[in-house]
Every structure is written in structure tokens, then in C-alpha cells.
From TrEMBL:
<feature type="domain" description="AsmA">
    <location>
        <begin position="2"/>
        <end position="171"/>
    </location>
</feature>
<dbReference type="Pfam" id="PF05170">
    <property type="entry name" value="AsmA"/>
</dbReference>
<feature type="domain" description="AsmA">
    <location>
        <begin position="485"/>
        <end position="736"/>
    </location>
</feature>
<dbReference type="InterPro" id="IPR007844">
    <property type="entry name" value="AsmA"/>
</dbReference>
<dbReference type="InterPro" id="IPR052894">
    <property type="entry name" value="AsmA-related"/>
</dbReference>
<protein>
    <submittedName>
        <fullName>AsmA family protein</fullName>
    </submittedName>
</protein>
Length: 854
């Protein structure tokens, strides 16, 4: 026992003595120089160490402080406050510095790529060089070292460290903190990694293993075998954790060729990744997950071309394509439409690509499902940017009777707007360089943002020829409100205006039911007459303005006179069109039309509507509309053989209060020019006749025409208007009324005067009269003032006396409506009013109205 204890003591003394002798005999500066030379030979990096020491207990190792690795002129690649590296003594005998266990604390790792694509972290070994360095043993003279020293690393451990990157070529940078990193078995066939880090307070982990790292430098796996790998990552705390797994193999890992990768994972929200990449601009896509199998290799030439062109292309990694996928997402926004419960699946490359999703738009919900060719065919189509072989597709869209939020009784949940639609829409065809899709559908009702249609059927073909030309062929749409058929072609030629042309016909079209006349926006100060961009109102408003006397003269822009371009001018200049429109039955603004047709041509902001035909209110329609908005001033011209329009449109066009209801027949020729509706109204010239039969007139207007006390006699409601006829001459922002006459019940008014279209006032000399039991009572009046506050005064004779005529038999003459309507129609045909009804009134009513009897 004593001998054993003595042997142990001798061994310990010898071991301590060897350690002390090693520290005395080993020249630390020389050893650092040899390590620096070996590192330079292997990687081309320069090593700087502030302080180091060699230890032999409990095993041979090197301890260093403030270590820096860098390339000349570059940012340091690696910095560490302290290092501890175990050394293999036997490897030193073979001129190899092998770190069996490399531990760094407080390290900072920099990954930097220059604008020219050079990476300072890539190795640049010095294959042949001669370096002078002293021997690491004190007492020996320095000599030339010609042999190459190898450098090897078995394991790497980092704690309390950071990783940063700066890619000048792509213009991205970032970094994260490393709580712990373990890289072990680096010289074995299966190294493994265990990383725990965080960025901006968000934790993440990476675990897994890869194959021999030597293949990364040699360019291919050993003996042509595959290079397998398996990695798993998590992001976020336990309560909100996303995960991702990658398994696969590569034939050439250095160049990322011959790859087969299986990716699977679940992300609570795609935007979670912005916690690591804050400038990625990722969309809000919750509950994204599934698995994808990828195969192929990175096409570096195509990738460099995409990066050089500053675009990502339709496929993020060219050359690497999916061979199977099963993906799902809770929801995702696509161009203002919300897609929910999205699933995308294909079992193999030759299986059809299946898609299923819910669609939500403006309070309406649909369910869509469909399939497209094969997965490989769709990948080829996408990679070719839509110029590959045609891919067969089919899809079905159905309206949802109950939304998910309503099913779950979510707060403020409500059934979708289209819950009663029972819509079924199918699409069949092929998508490619020349796409053809057949569309068929039906619905009990169809809810749109503009109207609710009933009893809908739909059929037709959608075509795309690959030259940015879209066409609807054989359109057949029918509902209770509208029935349309025809062809429409929309093209977007390069360096030219978009063009739309074709022909549409309607068996019946109820625009009032379609709510096309409704406007939710208030008119601007410069466009008080323009409420909404609707075809009927636009036609009327251009009818009160005109074109320059010579439309063939060149148009000169006068931007100094224009503060802003009106929206309707911008719309006219934005595209060209050539459309033939017709309707067997048309209802708009309360007016009924039959056999209506017209030809609209729009080119360079110049629109014409000619060959207008049809019947409205018993009148044959005819006229020409010409609006030239290609330059300044805008020029307009209207020739109305007869146009029948709702009275409301006319009153809105000139900003008059709504006093008349019914249809107005317009006959005349007017023209103008200006920079907006108001300036064109100021410059109106020409003559215009208006007539109206069997309409309605405001009692307030009749009371103004009949005198200050007429309100108590007539009332403020609507009264039947038997006839109205007037002819006026337009000039200098005024309308000179040459003749005016109307008859409503037992009240009739005739006169003449002037209406200020610019000043919005009027001065009329009228003679109202009332028929009372075969007798007539009348008194001449003058109406003067703004439209909203007209004052009524009696006309006086030369002696200043008011005039009043009472009693006497009514003159036996022609119905006065005949002459008034003839004046308003300029000799054109039109409907005649119904026979005058016989009224029974008290004479006291008239006397009270005229202020004679109180």
C-alpha cells in the first residue's frame, strides 16, 4: 500500500513538473505565430491574439483572450473575449493543429458580402508559401519553416455571442444573439448542431445534423453518394411557437445540385418571421402549414439574371421545383379579396393541383374549389410566366348561406349579404399562352355592390390570346332586371391606350333597378352637376355643353387656365373604345324606351355618340353627341332631333331645385367649350326647346307663379302637369326664354323672360290664370331673384297700378298646350296631353290666393 501511494505521489509530481516545464519551455509568442501561419494557410485570414497560454492539465489546451480573425481591409470576421481550445498532441507531431473542443465566450461573428459579390468569410487558402516563425521552444534559434501546417476543428461551442450580416449586393443586413451554440462532430460523417438564440426578445432554436462537411469544400459527396441532412427550427416562446423541419439529401451540396428536400411546418402567422427579418414586409397569413417536397438544383444563371434585373420572378428559386405539396392557410388577402380556409394539394408531380378556399368580399361569402392539370404542368406554366403549354383547369364557386363568424356566434356576426343567392358558377377550359374558359352559372338572386338581381343565368367564354387581349365571347346574361348578350374585347397594347370594342344588346334593361343612378359621393365645387360616373347622367350633362365651332382645328393645351383636370376628362383620356349598344326595352330615370341603339366611339379623349335611334314616351329618338376632351378647352356639341330624358337629370345638370318630375323632350342645337362643367355651362350657345306632358310639378313652383298668397290655395305637394313647353336661346351664360307655357289642373301660366345659368337666378314675366266654372281670373306677375329664393311682384301699368282680370266667359280657342308644345318641339312630333279635366272650384279660392279676399 505504501508503494502504491508513493507511486501516485511520484506520478502527480512528474505530471505537475511536466506542466510547469511545458509553460517554461514553450514560447507562447512562437506558438501563436505558428497557429497564425497555419490559419493563414488554410483560410487566408489573419489572426491577432492579445494574450494566450498553454495548459496540460487536465488535458492539453490553449487559452486565449481578445482573439480577432479578419481579412486585410475588411471588417473582422470573428472576435471573441475568451477562447478555450483543447489540442491533440499527437496531431502536432503530424504538423496538424487540431482543436478537439473549441469554446468561445462573448464572440461576435460577422458575415459580409461586398457589392461585387465577394464574401469575406469564404476561405482563400495559401497553397504554397514560405513563412518564417520561431520554434515554440525557448532556447532554439529561429529557422525557415517550409512544411505546411494543417488546421482542423472537431467541435465549436459559443455562449453569450452575436451573429451579424451585411449583404451590400442585396442591400440587406441584420443579426441575432446566440445564447448557446454547439457544433459537434465536425470531422465525423454526421456533424450536428444545437443553436438557441433570440432577436428583439423573440427566442428561436435550430437543431439537427448534416453529412460530412468535407463535401462542402470538395464540391461533391464521397463516391457519388447522397449528402443527407435533417434540421428542425422553432420560433417564439412555448405559448406561441412556430416550427419548421427540413429533411433531404443532395448530390452536390456545394453547388446545391441534385437536391431532394422535404419541408414541413406550422406557423401561427407568417408575420411572425418579421421578428427575425423586420423589413421583410410579409402579409398577415394566419395558420399557415403543411408539407412540400422539392427536387432539382438551383439554376444559378437564372438566379443571377433575376437579381441583376432587380426582380424576383414568378418562382423564388429557379431550378428547384415541388414534386408534392399539401398546404393550408387560415386566411390571406389577395387584391382586396379575403381568402379563408385555403388548401392547396397535389400528391405527386403527375397529380392534379387541387385548390379549395372561402372567399369574402364586401360582406359576401363564397366557397370555391377547383383543379388545374398536374403539379408539374402548373410549375412549368408559372416558371414560363404564363407562356408555357396550356394547362386544363376547372373550378366551381358557390355562395355561402352562413359565414364562419355567424356560425361561431362571434361579436357583431351577421349572415353574408349573399346568403340567399344560391349561386353556382363553373369554369372549364385551359390556361396558357392562349387561354379559353367557358363560364356557366345560375342563381336565385345575385347580390352585387350596386343591385340585387333575381333569377340569374349566365353563360359565355373568356379568352386571352397572350398579347394582353381579353375577350368575352357569346355572353348570355339574363335576370329579371337585365338580359344582355354580345361580345366584348379589351386589349392593352404596348405603348398605346387600352382599347375596348364590341357589341352588346339587351332584351330588357332596367337601370333604375340596377341602381346605376345612385351616387354616394357629394359633388365637388367645380363639378356640382357631376354626381357619379354613370352613363345616363354623363349623356345628359354633355348634352348641355358643346364643342368648338370647328372640331377639326388642332387642339392647343392651355394648362395655365386649368388648376386640375376633372375626373371625367381623365376617364375619357385613359382609354379608347368602339362599342355598338342596343336595347329592345330600356328603363332609366323613370322613363321607358324601346328599340334604342347607338354607336359610341372614343379615341384620344374624343368621344362621339351617333346613329342614336329608338322610341321614348311616344317620340322617335335621334341626335348626335360629340365631346372632345383631347386638349384644352374641352369642346362639346349636341344636336338633338329629339331626346327624351328624365326631368331630374336636366335639373341636376344645371343645379336647379327639383321642381318637375317626368320625362322631358329636348330639341335643339347647343355648343360650348371650357375646362369643366361649370365653365362650359357659362359658355353655352345655341337654341333649345323643352316640352313635357302628363308629368308632375311642385306646388311651391305653382304658388310662386300664382302670387304671394297662392300657397294657401295651391299647397306645397306635387300637382299633375298636363303640359309644359318652352323655347330658349342660350348665350353668355344666360337662357333667354322666348316663350313659356304650362298647365297644371285649373292653373295655367304663360310668359317669357331670362334665366341666368351662371348666376343661378331668373327674371320672368308671367301671366298666371285660373279657370273657375267657365270663367277665367288672371293677373300679370314678375318673378325675380335666385332660384332658391324667388320674389313675386305684380306687374304694374304705366300709372303704377296692379292689374287683375276677373270673370268673363273663357275664350273659345284652341287648347293652349298645342301652341306651347309646338314651340318647345321646334316642329318635331311628340305626344299630346290628355284631355283637360273639368274642375269644380270656388271663386273665393282664387280671390284668397290673389290677396283680394281675406
Amino acid at each position: 500500500m505504501r508503494k502504491l501511494v508513493a507511486a501516485v505521489i511520484v506520478f502527480v509530481v512528474l505530471l505537475v513538473g511536466v506542466s510547469i516545464a511545458a509553460n517554461v519551455l514553450v514560447d507562447q509568442k512562437a506558438l501563436r505565430a505558428r497557429v497564425a501561419i497555419a490559419l493563414k494557410q488554410e483560410t487566408g485570414l489573419d489572426l491577432k491574439v492579445e494574450q494566450s497560454a498553454v495548459q496540460f492539465l487536465p488535458w492539453p489546451s490553449i487559452v486565449a483572450q481578445n482573439v480577432v480573425l479578419s481579412r486585410a481591409g475588411d471588417v473582422p470576421v470573428f472576435q471573441a473575449q475568451s477562447l478555450h481550445a483543447g489540442l491533440s498532441v499527437l496531431a502536432l507531431l503530424q504538423r496538424e493543429i487540431r482543436f478537439q473542443d473549441f469554446v468561445a465566450d462573448g464572440a461576435r461573428i460577422f458575415v459580409h458580402r461586398r457589392a461585387d459579390g465577394r464574401m469575406d468569410w469564404m476561405t482563400h487558402a495559401l497553397n504554397s508559401q514560405e513563412e518564417e516563425a520561431p520554434l515554440p521552444v525557448n532556447g532554439f534559434q529561429a529557422r525557415r519553416i517550409e512544411a505546411h501546417w494543417a488546421l482542423a476543428l472537431d467541435a465549436l461551442h459559443l455562449t453569450n455571442s452575436t451573429v451579424q450580416w451585411d449583404d451590400r449586393r442585396l442591400g440587406v443586413s441584420g443579426g441575432f444573439a446566440v445564447q448557446a451554440l454547439d457544433l459537434a462532430g465536425l470531422r465525423t460523417p454526421s456533424p450536428w448542431i444545437n443553436l438557441a438564440g433570440q432577436h428583439a426578445g423573440t427566442p428561436f432554436t435550430v437543431k439537427g445534423h448534416v453529412s460530412a462537411l468535407g463535401a462542402l469544400w470538395s464540391g461533391a459527396s464521397s463516391q457519388g453518394a447522397s449528402w443527407p441532412f435533417s434540421l428542425a427550427a422553432t420560433l417564439g416562446p412555448e405559448s406561441h411557437r412556430d416550427w419548421l423541419e427540413l429533411d433531404g439529401a443532395m448530390q452536390d451540396p456545394r453547388h446545391l445540385q441534385g437536391m431532394t428536400v422535404h419541408v414541413r411546418g406550422e406557423w401561427l402567422d407568417v408575420q411572425d418571421a418579421q421578428q427575425l427579418f423586420p423589413h421583410a414586409g410579409l402579409p398577415h397569413v394566419p395558420a399557415l402549414g403543411g408539407d412540400v417536397t422539392l427536387a432539382g438544383g438551383v439554376d444559378w444563371a437564372a438566379l443571377r439574371a433575376m437579381q441583376k434585373g432587380g426582380r424576383s420572378g414568378w418562382w423564388p428559386v429557379p431550378g428547384l421545383t415541388p414534386t408534392a405539396l399539401h398546404l393550408h392557410a387560415g386566411s390571406m388577402p389577395v387584391r382586396g379579396v379575403e381568402l379563408g380556409h385555403v388548401t392547396l394539394a397535389a400528391d405527386s408531380a403527375q397529380s392534379p393541383l387541387m385548390l379549395e378556399t372561402d372567399i369574402e368580399w364586401r360582406g359576401s361569402d363564397w366557397h370555391a374549389s377547383g383543379q388545374a392539370g398536374t403539379l408539374s404542368g402548373m410549375v412549368g406554366f408559372v416558371q414560363s410566366v404564363g407562356r408555357g403549354s396550356a394547362v386544363p383547369v376547372q373550378a366551381e364557386i358557390r355562395s355561402q348561406s352562413l359565414s364562419l363568424s355567424a356560425t361561431l356566434n362571434a361579436p357583431n356576426a351577421a349572415p353574408p349579404v349573399n346568403s340567399q343567392d344560391a349561386l353556382v358558377l363553373t369554369l372549364n377550359g385551359a390556361v396558357g399562352a392562349a387561354s379559353q374558359l367557358t363560364v356557366q352559372g345560375h342563381a336565385d338572386q345575385l347580390s352585387t355592390p350596386w343591385a340585387v338581381l333575381h333569377g340569374v343565368t349566365l353563360g359565355g367564354q373568356l379568352a386571352l390570346d397572350g398579347q394582353a387581349v381579353y375577350a368575352v365571347k357569346g355572353l348570355d346574361f339574363e335576370s329579371r332586371e337585365a338580359a344582355l348578350s354580345g361580345d366584348v374585347r379589351l386589349s392593352f397594347p404596348a405603348n398605346a391606350m387600352p382599347q375596348i370594342n364590341g357589341a352588346l344588346s339587351a332584351k330588357h334593361l332596367d337601370i333604375d333597378a340596377l341602381k346605376l343612378m345612385t351616387s354616394s359621393a357629394a359633388p365637388s365645387a367645380s363639378e356640382q352637376a357631376v354626381h357619379a360616373v354613370t352613363v345616363p347622367q354623363a349623356v345628359l350633362k354633355t348634352a348641355i355643353a358643346v364643342e368648338h365651332k370647328s372640331t377639326d382645328a388642332p387642339v392647343v393645351e392651355d394648362h395655365a387656365a386649368v388648376s386640375s383636370v376633372p375626373n371625367w376628362v381623365t376617364l375619357l383620356r385613359a382609354q379608347d373604345a368602339d362599342m355598338v349598344l342596343s336595347a329592345d326595352q330600356l328603363r332609366v330615370g323613370g322613363a321607358e324606351y324601346t328599340g334604342v341603339s347607338g354607336h359610341i366611339v372614343l379615341a384620344g379623349g374624343h368621344v362621339t355618340l351617333d346613329t342614336l335611334k329608338g322610341q321614348g314616351a311616344g317620340v322617335a329618338l335621334g341626335g348626335v353627341l360629340d365631346v372632345n376632351a383631347s386638349g384644352w378647352p374641352v369642346q362639346m356639341h349636341v344636336q338633338a332631333a329629339s331626346l327624351v330624358l328624365p326631368a331630374r337629370w336636366l335639373q341636376e345638370a344645371v343645379s336647379m331645385p327639383e321642381m318637375l318630375q317626368g320625362t322631358v323632350q329636348l330639341v335643339g342645337d347647343v355648343r360650348s367649350q371650357g375646362h369643366d362643367v361649370q365653365s362650359m355651362r357659362d359658355a353655352l350657345e345655341g337654341d333649345l326647346g323643352l316640352s313635357m306632358v302628363d308629368g308632375q310639378v311642385s306646388g311651391a313652383l305653382l304658388a310662386q307663379l300664382a302670387g304671394p298668397q297662392a300657397a294657401s290655395f295651391i299647397g306645397s305637394g306635387l300637382h299633375g302637369l298636363r303640359c309644359l313647353g318652352t323655347h330658349m336661346v342660350l348665350s353668355d351664360g344666360k337662357a333667354t326664354v322666348e316663350r313659356l307655357g304650362l298647365q297644371a289642373g285649373n292653373v295655367q301660366v304663360s310668359g317669357q323672360g331670362q334665366i341666368g345659368l351662371v348666376a343661378q337666378n331668373l327674371t320672368l314675366h308671367v301671366r298666371p290664370s285660373v279657370q273657375l266654372a267657365g270663367a277665367e281670373a288672371s293677373a300679370p306677375l314678375m318673378l325675380d331673384g335666385p332660384w332658391t329664393h324667388v320674389t313675386v311682384q305684380p306687374e304694374r301699368d304705366v300709372d303704377g297700378n296692379a292689374q287683375l282680370t276677373l270673370g268673363g266667359a273663357a275664350p273659345a280657342e284652341e287648347d293652349p298646350c298645342v301652341a306651347w308644345l309646338a314651340a318647345g318641339r321646334n316642329g318635331q312630333a311628340g305626344p299630346q296631353p290628355a284631355a283637360a279635366a273639368k274642375h269644380h272650384n270656388r271663386a273665393s279660392d282664387l280671390l284668397k290666393a290673389l290677396g283680394v279676399w281675406h
